[in-house]
Amino acid sequence: MKILIIGGGMGGTILANNLARRLHTELQDGKARITMLSASERHMYQPGLLYVALGRMMPDELYRDQRRLLEPQIDFHVDPVEEFALDQHQVRTKSGKTYPYDVLVIATGSRIFPQGVPGLQENAEFFYTEESALRMCKRLREFEGGRVVIAVGVPHKCPMAPLEITFMLYDYFKDRGILDKTRIHYTYPIGRTHSLENVAKWATPEFDRLGITYETLFNMKEIDGRGKVVHSEEGTEAPYDLLIAIPAHKGMEVIEKNGLGKSGWIPTHRHRLNMEGRDDVFVLGDTTNLPISKAGSTAHFEADALAENLAAMVKIGSAVRDYDGKVFCFIEAGKDRATYAMFNYQNPPNPKPPTKAVHWFKTAYNKLYWASARGLL
Length: 377
Hints:
By secondary structure, this protein is an alpha/beta fold. It has 2 domains: 2-109 and 252-326, FAD/NAD(P)-binding domain (3-Layer(bba) Sandwich); 113-249, FAD/NAD(P)-binding domain (3-Layer(bba) Sandwich). Helix content is 32%, strand content 24%. The chain has helices spanning 10-22, 24-29, 49-53, 66-69, 120-123, 130-142, 161-176, 197-210, 253-257, 296-316, 356-373; strands spanning 2-6, 33-38, 42-44, 63-65, 75-78, 81-85, 90-93, 98-100, 103-106, 110-112, 146-152, 182-187, 213-215, 220-224, 229-232, 237-239, 242-246, 249-251, 281-283, 327-332, 338-343. Strands 5-2-1-9-19 form a 5-stranded parallel beta sheet, covered by helices on one side. Strands 13-12-11-17 form a 4-stranded parallel beta sheet, covered by helices on one side. It has a 3-stranded antiparallel beta sheet with strand order 6-7-8, with no helix packed on it. It is globular.
C-alpha cells in the first residue's frame, strides 16, 4: 500500500512516524510505503511564536530539520503539491513530478488572513509568523503605555490564544512597570469572552479581577489606522494606542485552488477522518472543517487515531477505531501560571484555577514537543 502524506507539520509528522513504527515489517517487506511531501525542509514549533512575541524565546529555538524528525523508512521530499488529481489517485508537485497513492493524507495546515479586514494587516501586531512575532516583540519593547486592544477574528488557530496573550500582556506590562499607564481591552466576536462556555465562565471573572475590560459581540469590520480605531460590524468602536490582533485563518491556497473545500477547509468525517465522499483520502489538523479547535493537540490525537486505522487497513483490511474529538489545550494565565482545557465531542472543558505547576508543565512541553513530533509521547 502506497501511503502519501501531504504536509510536514505536527499532524503529518506524528502520523508518518507512528505509521512507520506500526508498519515496520511491512515496510521492510515492500508491502507498504510511506512518502511525505512538504513545502519546507524545516519543522516549526508554532506555539512558540507566542513566546517569541514576548521576548521569552528566540526564533532559532522553534526549528528542527524535518528529515531528522522522521523515521528513516519514510521517503521525504521538499516538493509542494500544486494539483490534486483524486480521481486518478495521484498528485502533481511544483517540480512537475507525479506521485501516485493508494491512500492520501492531507495535512497542509492553515494560514492567517488579515487582509480579510481592511486596515488590519497594516495597523495590527500578530504573533502567527516568525516575522510578525519579532515585529510585535520590538513594538512591545517600545510601548510606554496607553490603551491596548486585543481584537479577534474567526476562525483562528489555537482557541486559547486570545486569552493567553491578554493575560501574558498584563504580566508583561506589570514587569515593565507601565501597568498603571496601560489599559487592556479585550474584544470577542460572540456573546461571551470565549467560544467554549466553561472557558468563558473561568476567564470573565479573571478579567474582572485584573481590571481588564471586554466587549463581546464585536466582529472586526475595518481598522482606521490614522484615527487608531477598530470599527465593528455591530456599529461599535474600539480606540487603541496598540492593536494586537488574532487574525482570521483560512486553509492553504492549494486546497482552495483545487476546489477541495471552501476557504481551504476540507469536508471531513468527524470520526473516520476521511474526506467526505472519498474512502482513500484522509484529512488531519487545521485542514479539516470539523467544528473543533484548530490546535496542535487536535492534530496529534487525530494522527494517533488515523495511524492505528491505516496500519490496521494494511494488516487486516479494515479500520479499528473512531476519533472521538479529543483536544487538550494549555492556557497560559500570565507569566508563571497556567491551566488547561481537555474536551471531546461529548464532554465540554472545565478549566481549573491556574497554578504554577501547570505553567511549568507547559514550559516543559515546549522542550518535549520534539519527542511528541517523533510520535514518542
